[in-house]
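Extended Data, panel c. Modelled sequence:
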Amino acid sequence: MTAVTPITTGRRPPAGGSRSRRGRMGWVFVGPFMAVFALVFLAPIAYSLYLSFFRDQLVGGTSFVGLDNFQRAFEDEQFWAAVGRVLLFLVVQVPVMLGLALLIALALDSGRLYGKSFFRIAVFLPYAVPAVVATLMWGFIYGTRFGLVGNINDALGVSLPDPLSPSLVLASIGNIVTWEFIGYNMLIFYSALRVVPKSLYEAAEIDGAGEWRVITAVKIPAIRGALVIATIFSVIGSFQLFNEPSILQSLAPNAITTYFTPNLYTFTLSFSGRQQNYAATVSLVMGVVTMIIAYAVQLRGMRKEA
């Protein structure tokens, strides 16, 4: 009986050394992302948190005030009025925009719409228009002395309500935002509908389901993930409302105040009021509020999906 000699193919490096080399290679690939993430995401938050603990005064200079800025933010009526305004905007504008986007996506997916390609591009085109240009365009349309509303009043001898009046300006801004982003959300829903398995439609057809039943029982449940994502994006975008009220402010100074939205209030505090420390505090509080509401929307959507 002879002993069997194990066949070796060469020298194998130690397992620990191979694992260490793979770890170094991993950091080589992840390192640039981590550096950029720390520079553009973590560093501004850390700097804002640092600023929030100080107060800059003409007499006495910069002094450490602890949590006084946060206490002031929680008692600031102008700040919470701005938060309430964007919450109202969120509750009304987001369902309207997403509902219209879903209807258009379903119409495109049905295959019964003539000129589908042209219609899809036409609906998406406003998203390619910069927000500043879109707001200036709609600001001209809203004008009662020089714009479309004013021309209609002069031509027909009527007096249409002023879209830039204090009672209607929030709805007018909602119309601009809806016009801008309805095509973007439509594209998300339409893309999700295109990947729904055809076997689900065939099964529904065998069961005798009509078009409406297919939409409510097959299509909408199948794209629930896309609906949740679009809703979260819209919630975050509503709390970041800035461009539209900022540009329309020159046309409607009596309707759009310096604290119309939280972002506009923060901008005013920082660059007009020279209160950078308090502006940083308001930004942090607003970021936490946005994160909580967006997370609640995500949890509710996931629960429904489960």
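The radius of gyration is 27 Å. This feature is highlighted in the accompanying rendering.
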